[in-house]
Amino acid sequence: MCIVLFLVSFLVATAEGGRDAGLVTRVKETIVPYYASPSELNAYWQSVFPNKPIPSSILDHLSAPSGNKMKDMEKEHYWSVYSDRLTEGDAKIFHNWAHRIASEKLLYPETVFTAGSKINLYIDRAVALHSPYLHRDIADSIPMSTKNFTDITAMFAPVSPSMARDMWSTLSSCEHPREVAGEQKACTTSLESMKRFSALALGTGDLRAFSTSLDVPEEGISSPSQRYEVAAVRAITPRAATNTVTCHSMSFPVALFYCHAVNPTRIYEVTLKREGGASIPESRTPAMVQALAVCHVNTSGFDPTLRYWVKLGLKPGEASVCHFLTRGDVLWAPASAT
Fold first, then answer.
1. What is the pLDDT of residues 259-302, one digit of tens each?
2. Are 133 and 254 within 8 A, CB to CB?
3. 328 CB contacts (<8 Å, ≥6 apart)?
4. What is the Cα–Cα distance from 322 to 184, expressed in whole angstroms?
5. Other C-beta atoms within 10 Å of 140: how many?
6. DSSP state string for 38-87
7. Which alpha helices (DSSP H) does the chain contain, by range?
8. pTM for this one?
């Protein structure tokens, strides 16, 4: 599908099927693909990261569903808002810097990443994992702001009330001030802009991108009654800590990532084995999991009211804060640090 792009104002034209939506403008006409094709994205990746594999969390967006399946997936949403009205009050709940890791059960002290440790494993579910990437020219032309909310929702019509709320919350999170001192953040809507922000934040274009293992289900893992034992831990970055960028896939009709850097960090690949293993009948949690974990080392600027600190009997700055990556997250690190 193509859209007709003009350089002044745009109107919205939506064709049957949702993914065929187009922008219509008026001055200079240029034909540009609306969605980036897998071959185009792969060519871009190989041009900037030759001979380096594309992380699975990026590949998932290259096999985006279409038609009715796409519409059904758009109705799924992470956040729960119980009002049909979109208000600023609704959005305030989502402004914590940690997004989907704000719940205390998703946070761990770094000390648990030691062979033999036992934990209740919580990894959040991936959001909008199969939303397609916009073509870079299209993504750069769309002002992702709540001020343009009506125009943006019209572009992706039909949009369910739940998806509209998710879109508003995502845009609000992108606009919200930094929650942690020194945090760098940006919302990216193309693969190129995600790489560009990561390079700027890390001070180098020589990067490596990581995603968590396919062992982690899209729906995440919640094991309140089943314990996991840490079988092995491998440091991806030096124990001395380094700077990284984490990009979280957000609930939106197209691929949109909330990228932020709360540094320094340490990154681990953690292998966990469920107690009881495969002998537990009809268990909904995998017997073995290999997942990436991010530890924020300098926590002095973190929210002191988190119950995480109460549970540890500590204050911000006295311990690291760690969380596992979802299937939809992308981690960027300087190649020299990995």
1. 999 999 999 999 999 998 666 655 678 999 999 999 999 999 88
2. yes
3. 57, 60, 126, 127, 128, 129, 218, 248, 249
4. 18
5. 13
6. HHHHHHHHHHHSTT-PPPHHHHHHHT---HHHHHHHHH--SS----SS--
7. 38-48, 56-62, 67-75, 88-92, 136-141, 149-155, 161-175, 191-202, 307-312
8. 0.80
